[in-house]
Amino acid sequence: MSNPVLITGGAGSVGRQLAGMLLEDGKTVRIFDLPFMDFSGLEDEEGVEVVKGDITDADSVISAVAGVSGVLHLAAILPPNSEKDRDFTFRVNVDGTRNIVEGLKAGAPEAPLVFTSSISTYGDTSGENPPITVDHSQGAIDVYADSKIAGEKILLASEVNYIILRVASIAVPGFLEPPEPWPFTAAQRVEMIHRDDVADALRNAVGNEKAVRKVFNVAGGNSWRLTGKDYVEDFFNVMGAPVDMAVYRDSPGWNDWYDTEESQKILKYQNRSYEYYSDQMKAIVEEMMAG
Amino acid sequence: MPQSGQEMLEESIGSCKQIADGLGTQNAAWETSIVEIIEKFEEVSDTFFFKTMPSVPVTRTAMREAASLLDLKNEGDWKGFEASLDSMISTAQDVIEKAGMKGTTLT
Predict the structure, then answer these.
(1) Which of the four pLDDT bands, split at 50, 70 and 90, describes residue B102?
(2) Per-residue confidence at A223, pLDDT binned at 50, 70, 90?
(3) Looking at chain A, which terminus has fewer C-beta neighbours within 10 angstroms, N or C?
(4) Which of A118, A144, A176, A234 to substitute to test the interface with B, most B CBs within 10 Å?
């Protein structure tokens, strides 16, 4: 039996999706998440080990990390919750990452650590020429991005085999509430990514030697390069909702078009076009109309 | 222009209010059920769901059932009312469940 891949925050929907994918790849998985999370369907699954603990507790992280073949570090406080309490966000997103790094040093020094960072770390790039490359300067405009920049710094200064994925805004195919406001202006460039392409990038980063000690932009690719207005109008039209109720940011947010040439070459994750996503959304709405 | 889900929900609430008026003298439990439906509908009425096309089928059903229930009340057909009330409660649950969409399209 191979050493397990640790998925922090693994009891959530993305963690579960990844666990399934890694099992398909013949790997074993260790899920690490807070004790009050719902672990149903995971605890009895062959090839899955559940470790309940808190990422901010160094001791529980050390035991979770011991002997792993890799880490997919998903545990984080995400927007909008990340903006409510800076200290708490930093405890989870920054101190938690530090605990993983320390745990790896002690218990699995060779194991790669895949860190889910964010393209929000570039800040407002709307006045620049796209695409935004990974060597672009970082400048947070919110707490979440600030915490991710701090997390990246811990990895870059460490000796662990990090793989940093700066993930774009994730488009989830589902009948869900639109954000208010949308995290961009109407005229702003946006390049999102399909949720399942993010999962593919994470899956393909595990055990990928070409990705080690590199930083990647992870975004949807050419078909996802739109303006904020294009994306939002499509969304409201599919939903059959009045477009004029969309609320945009007053000033540019952190969305842009990204250079993903290297990430796609190494991680091979851009498998779902914007048209594919649009068709999925239409099918979801049609199913609801019929039901 | 066809009615939106929100307009049909509001019409359903209006019918339910008329149904609830004085219903307790006939059956207190029925009145409680209708008042609960009104409260829940008012609670969810501003959600995005009712501004979308997928809200139309289920709110149309709720609107028609509420109108039919009101007719039965006005006719004093209490046997028919009792049977239709069960259907209205089931439809209301469907409306509330569908309106309770979670999360956002972006993370």
Answers:
(1) low
(2) very high
(3) N
(4) A176
Q: What is the ipTM of this complex?
A: 0.76
Q: Does B2 touch chain A (CB under 8 A)?
A: no
pLDDT digits (tens, 9 = 90+) for A88-117: 999 999 999 999 999 999 999 999 999 999
Which residue among B47, B54, B105 places its CB closest to the CB of A288? B54
What average pLDDT does this structure show over B67-83?
96
pLDDT for position A1: 61
Residue A176 at interface with chain B, using a CB cutoff of 8 Å: yes
In chain B, what percentage of residues exceed pLDDT 70? Answer: 93
What are the angstrom distances between the C-alpha of A226 and each of A78, A131, A190, A266? Answer: 24, 13, 5, 24
- Contact state of B104 with A179 under an 8 Å Cβ cutoff: yes
Tokens 């399934």 sit on residue:
A20
Q: Which amino acid is at B67?
A: A
Count of CB atoms within 10 A of residue A118's CB? 25
What is the per-residue pLDDT across A235-275, written as a single tens digit (0 to 9) for each?
999 999 999 999 999 999 999 999 999 999 999 999 999 99
In angstroms, rounded to a whole number, what is the distance separating the alpha carbons of residues A18 and A70?
13
Long-range Cβ contacts of A53-60 (<8 Å, 24+ apart): A55/A8, A55/A9, A55/A92, A55/A96, A55/A99, A55/A100, A56/A91, A56/A92, A56/A95, A56/A96, A56/A99, A57/A99, A58/A99, A58/A102, A58/A103
pLDDT in tens, A178-215: 888 999 999 999 999 999 999 999 999 998 999 999 99
Indicate if the pLDDT at residue B107 is higher than 50: no
How many other CB atoms sit within 10 Å of the CB of residue A24? 9
Whole-angstrom CA distances from A49 to A14, A137, A285 are: 17, 39, 37
| A110: alpha, beta or left? (left if phi > 0; alpha if psi -120 to 50) | alpha
Of A178, A192, A285, Cβ closest to residue B104: A178
CATH number of A5-290: 3.40.50.720
The token pair at A21 is 């994918």
- Residue in A189, A215, A192 with CA at minimum distance from that of residue A130: A189
With an 8 Å Cβ cutoff, is B45 touching chain A?
no
Chain centre distance of CA A222: 19
